[in-house]
Every structure is written in structure tokens, then in C-alpha cells.
């Protein structure tokens, strides 16, 4: 069983393969490798589970493996240097194919390394977490974190293909699975109210890893993202709506320390804050906000910001955001469930009301 979604970007278009046991189908991988040199980048958690399975398909190539430590705190320029060390020490050429085998951190750091090495080498995404499968592996956003801001150093650089095997989610822990559901819920909120309702009705199946439910949410999420990326690859317009909850969420990740919150957990909190702010602007009603928070709670995700981050902490951290213009904090909010706004500036006093009050009435 295999479904293919095409990301339409002209001569840089590429397929997203979604199926069961996709990692056992070597042709999905090798058809996109055009040279004799291949490097797999993975991490210490994924390597014991899936590295041998992928490597077995590549015995005819000059193969190098780079195993990185696991965690958001290692998504740095310093750690990325080890990828360059491997490429350079083995004299890998500009036709080398780099394969990212792992979650969002591996995909982001590997993609950025591919964009930089000899000014760009081909790379393939094999995402092994739900969050990476439904979001970060698609669309060509690559990069690393800085102590002052998440994902502030990077490049738009599209993969040759994305290979998604739903069976790898069987080895994913419950917390990581829930983190991926946060991004799935996002798609329903920003452009697909029917999908949001379907998630509400089927959240228990998703968390129980029902195979049909997982395939459905992955396909729907990837199709939504592929459509948006095709319309606005470099985020000059509509693609910005994919950042619902992310300005708040990135502030939480940075302020609490990378790795304290999983990305999806921080986005869940940030989306609830964005919903609260949308209500204060008169765009959502109380019932809408309650419905959004209830779904995140059912998905076993946090919905309240950390106590240690004050409103002023949030303001300072949110000031380092790629959507901001001339120092004006610009946010993606909700006009209604199923429709997001483009980036909007919000009166500072109303933003402070959300930051001071939402989730702090214990």
C-alpha cells in the first residue's frame, strides 16, 4: 500500500511516498540517488532501530554514516560541523546524496548541511517521528538553532524525495507521538475545518496508533503542506500560516532551554495562546477556544505556558522571529476554526493581556 503526493515546484518538484513498510522497498530510495557516494545522517536513538535496514539497500554505493547525539539541544552549527568533517575527510563530491534518517532535528540539520556543502548537494528525507512525517520533512525549511532564537540560521532547500513508513511509528514513544499530533491539529485549524472535526472524532484511534488513522492524518497533513509550499515556497505570503502557534512556541523552547519542551508540545501551548489572543480580538468565541484547548488536552499535550516565563520574557523572545517587520511582532492568528490570518501586528496591550492571563489562573 503506497500513496504518492507530489510537491509541485517546477523542475524541483519531488514526491512524498507514504506507505506501510516503505523502508523495505529499496527502489523508493535508490531511484533518487544519482551518484556513487552516499552519506546517512542519523542519531543515537534511531541508528539501532533503522540504520541497518536502510544501509542494506545501499551496499553498492560508497557509504558513510554520521551518528549525531539525539535532542533539540544538539541542533547547532557546532554539531553540524561533524557532518562536514565526514564529507571532507572522505573526499565526497558535490554529487553526493545525503540521507536524513531521523526526526525533525536530523532532517533540519542534515538539510542545512546539504544546502551548504559545496554550495548544495542532493538530499533525501526519511522521517521517523510523526512530527517530521507530517511537517518538518516537507517543504525545504532547513536550519539550526542559536542560543537567542530557534531556527534563525538556515536555508530553503528542497529534498529529492520524502520516504514515509508509517510502521516506524510503532517504536516512537507516546510523548513524541503526541508532539506530532500538535502539528496535525494545526492543519485543521489553519485551512481545513472538516479535518479538525475528524481529528476530534478520532483522537483516541490516533493515540492508539490505529494504522488506518495514522495513514489518513499523514496523507492529509502532507497534502495540505504540499499545496501551501507549491503556492509560496519562500514564505512571502500564504506559507506563513503554517506558523500558527510557532512564535509563542519558539519563545517557550528558547526560554525554557532547548529540549525541555518537545517542539510539538511548545506549539500546542502556543496555539492555545494564539486562540486566546484571537478571541480577545473578537475573531473566535469562547466556545471555539474551549474546543481547541479540549482537543489538545485529549491529545495529551500541554496547554499552559511555563510559570517561569513572564510576559516580558515572552515579548523579548518573540521579538526574534522571522515574521517580524521593523521590530513589530507579527503573529498568525485564527479568523475561525479552519481559517488562519496572514501575519498581523497586534496592539501590545492586547498581546500582554494574553501573556499575563492565559494559562496563569491556577
Plain-language structure description:
This protein has 362 residues and is α/β, with parallel strands linked by helices. It folds into two domains: 2-171, 3-Layer(aba) Sandwich (Rossmann fold); 174-357, Dehydroquinate synthase-like, alpha domain, CATH 1.20.1090. The protein has 13 helices and 13 strands. It has helices spanning 26-30, 47-55, 77-89, 104-116, 130-136, 174-191, 193-207, 211-231, 246-256, 263-280, 286-298, 311-318, 348-357, and strands spanning 2-7, 14-19, 37-43, 62-68, 97-102, 123-127, 141-146, 149-156, 162-165, 330-331, 334-336, 339-340, 344-345. The strands form five sheets. The chain has a four-stranded parallel sheet, sandwiched between helices. The protein has a three-stranded mixed sheet with strand order 1-2-9, with helices on one face. It is globular, with a radius of gyration of 20 Å.
Computed over alpha carbons, the radius of gyration is: 20 Å
Q: What is the name of the CATH class of the largest domain? A: Mainly Alpha
Q: How is the main sheet built?
A: 4 strands, parallel
CATH H-level superfamily of the largest domain: Dehydroquinate synthase-like - alpha domain
Structural class label: alpha/beta
Poorly predicted runs of 5 or more residues: none
Brief description of this entry?
With 362 residues, this protein is α/β, with parallel strands linked by helices. It contains 13 helices and 13 strands.
Amino acid at each position: 500500500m503506497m500513496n504518492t503526493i507530489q510537491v509541485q515546484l517546477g523542475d524541483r518538484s519531488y514526491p512524498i511516498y507514504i506507505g506501510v513498510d516503505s523502508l523495505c522497498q529499496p527502489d523508493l530510495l535508490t531511484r533518487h540517488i544519482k551518484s556513487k557516494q552516499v552519506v546517512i545522517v542519523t542519531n543515537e536513538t534511531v541508528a539501532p532501530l533503522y540504520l541497518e535496514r536502510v544501509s542494506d539497500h545501499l551496499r553498492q554505493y560508497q557509504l558513510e554514516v554520521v551518528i549525531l547525539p539525539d535532542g533539540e539541544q544538539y541542533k547547532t552549527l557546532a554539531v553540524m560541523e561533524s557532518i562536514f568533517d565526514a564529507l571532507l575527510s572522505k573526499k565526497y563530491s558535490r554529487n553526493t546524496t545525503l540521507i536524513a534518517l531521523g526526526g525533525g532535528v536530523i532532517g533540519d540539520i542534515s538539510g542545512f548541511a546539504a544546502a551548504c556543502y559545496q554550495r548544495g548537494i542532493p538530499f533525501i528525507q526519511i522521517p521517523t517521528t510523526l512530527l517530521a512525517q507530517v511537517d518538518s520533512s516537507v517543504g525545504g525549511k532547513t536550519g539550526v538553532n542559536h542560543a537567542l532564537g530557534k531556527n534563525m540560521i538556515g536555508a530553503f532547500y528542497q529534498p529529492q524525495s520524502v520516504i514515509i513508513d508509517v510502521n516506524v511509528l510503532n517504536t516512537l514513544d507516546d510523548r513524541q507521538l503526541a508532539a506530532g499530533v500538535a502539528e496535525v491539529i494545526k492543519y485543521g485549524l489553519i485551512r481545513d475545518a472538516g479535518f479538525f472535526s475528524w481529528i476530534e472524532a478520532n483522537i483516541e484511534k490516533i493515540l492508539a496508533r490505529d494504522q488506518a488513522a495514522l495513514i489518513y492524518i499523514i496523507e492529509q497533513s502532507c497534502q495540505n503542506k504540499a499545496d501551501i509550499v507549491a503556492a509560496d515556497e519562500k514564505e512571502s505570503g500564504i506559507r506563513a500560516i503554517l506558523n500558527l502557534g510557532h512564535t509563542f512556541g519558539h519563545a517557550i523552547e528558547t526560554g525554557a532551554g532547548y529540549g525541555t519542551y518537545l517542539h510539538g508540545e511548545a506549539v500546542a501551548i502556543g496555539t492555545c495562546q494564539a486562540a486566546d489572543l484571537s478571541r480577545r480580538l473578537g475573531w473566535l468565541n469562547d466556545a471555539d477556544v474551549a474546543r481547541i484547548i479540549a482537543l489538545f488536552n485529549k491529545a495529551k499535550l500541554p496547554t499552559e505556558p511555563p510559570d517561569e516565563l513572564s510576559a516580558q520574557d515572552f515579548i523579548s523572545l518573540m521579538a526574534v522571529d522571522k515574521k517580524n517587520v521593523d521590530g513589530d511582532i507579527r503573529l498568525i492568528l485564527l479568523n475561525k476554526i479552519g481559517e488562519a490570518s496572514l501575519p498581523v501586528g497586534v496592539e501590545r496591550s492586547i498581546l500582554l493581556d494574553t501573556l499575563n492571563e492565559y494559562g496563569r489562573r491556577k
